[in-house]
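Example record

One chain of 306 residues, shown exactly as stored in the release files.
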Amino acid sequence: MPARGSARAGFIGLGVMGRPMARHLLEAGFAVTVHSRSRGPVEELVAAGATDGGSPGGVGAASDVVILMLPDPPDVHAVIFDEGLAAALAPGSVIVDMSTGDPMLAREWAATLAERGIDLLDAPVSGGDVGARERTLSIMVGGRAEALERARPLLDAMGRRVVHVGDSGAGMITKACNQLVVASTIQAVGEALVLAAAAGVSPARVREALLGGFAASRVLEVHGRRMLDANYVPGGRVALHRKDARIISRLARKLGVVTPAFDIVADALESLADEGGGDLDHSALVTLIEAESGVLVADRAQAQEE
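Predicted structure tokens for this chain:
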């Protein structure tokens, strides 16, 4: 693997997360070949110094390490096996799947690719669109340690913390745990702010107080702010978190683990998506609580601050 800044990097999937992540690679001095279904992000990255791969196969032919940031496991499978990425990669190459997926599929794909001499790292991230922009992502990695060391310079350029959790699938399992905690915490923050608003206490002041104590969290900071502003422009979309919730529930059932608190949130994500909220930020879970309670956090926050 070439030294940092000289490795040939590929990046497929230039959405809300992928676009700033790919830009960080360019800023770190890597040669980056990109591809995405939408032309706009590709053209933006090319203007910043990237090369347009034209297709997954084109990216693979020009890269030593290829980063994937795609919405769903079927998209990842299609890019790797149906659209030419694996066929174009040389033995010794590394694919780093940074999307959130199924750990069982990650293990299956890793075994298949290993037969071709290609490593697959499952390396999902936590930190959302803010972490992607600010290069503060936490990256949880499953796969061979040797492959991680080849890919680590790229990961270090995109995140603040890189943790090798274990063998193939371990990164995806860690992300499932992360998504369980994040969704459950969003629900708890929403319930707390609605409770404060209903009691006539400023939800903004309650959030401010809680941020200084044991209840402080990034969810309270970031998503609590979104709830106060009723700003549900997506960072993490409800539809994607619903997909994650289904993965969590399947994994829990397979392992015989009960998740009673999370089951409530999983149902809420299903309801919100079914009601047309799939493209909202997952902090919009609070809207279901508001509707049941007859209290709007944003309205109370604005009235009490005036």
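Notes: The chain is about 55% helix and 15% strand.
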